[in-house]
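Just curious: can you write whichever protein you like plus the matching structure tokens?

***
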Amino acid sequence: MTRAAAPAAPVPGWVTSADGTPIAYERRGGGPPLVLVGGALSTGVGAWRLAGLLAERFTTYAYDRRGRGGSGCEAAAYDPRREVEDLAAVLAVAGAGAGVHGLSSGGALVLEAAAAGVPMGRVSVYEPPYGADEDAHDGVPVHRLARVRRRVLVLDGGASPQWLRDAARAVARALPYGRHATLTGQTHVVAPHVLAPAVAGFHTE
């Protein structure tokens, strides 16, 4: 039986964000560009398995969010606008029309960047952790999401907490071109081999 070719070794790189912070990323694979944005506590390493599965069809860019892994961090207090600028810098390296996939708070970051007008292609997110109550302080930002003019796939896990699943549906409803789908049996810690086909299928439609 013929063995499948091993994924190509990732190519490390760095890009400078708007405020001078260095952002580390790893590129692998070949095909249309796809930027992967991890959750709040993860580095690009957390996306390596997903990147490896997607690398057969995409050129993936998995980066360390600021203050994590090989990326620097500004001395001032945390400001989510700086993270939007970081994503914009990585997208500039990936090239025009690059798709983006975000996991957990990385998904919320991607949606905020899209609402702010950062150029990107299609967007997929897995369980952005907004509060599902649209009237709550931590609720889904329906007015900002209404500004997202990209096709967006919002995924959740069938075994995830109900509030995350409700939030995913609320996000999809708030997006002008949003679509919702559930990955059966998955939790917030989604299996890369289950997530990869859903992401790949959407970004190659």
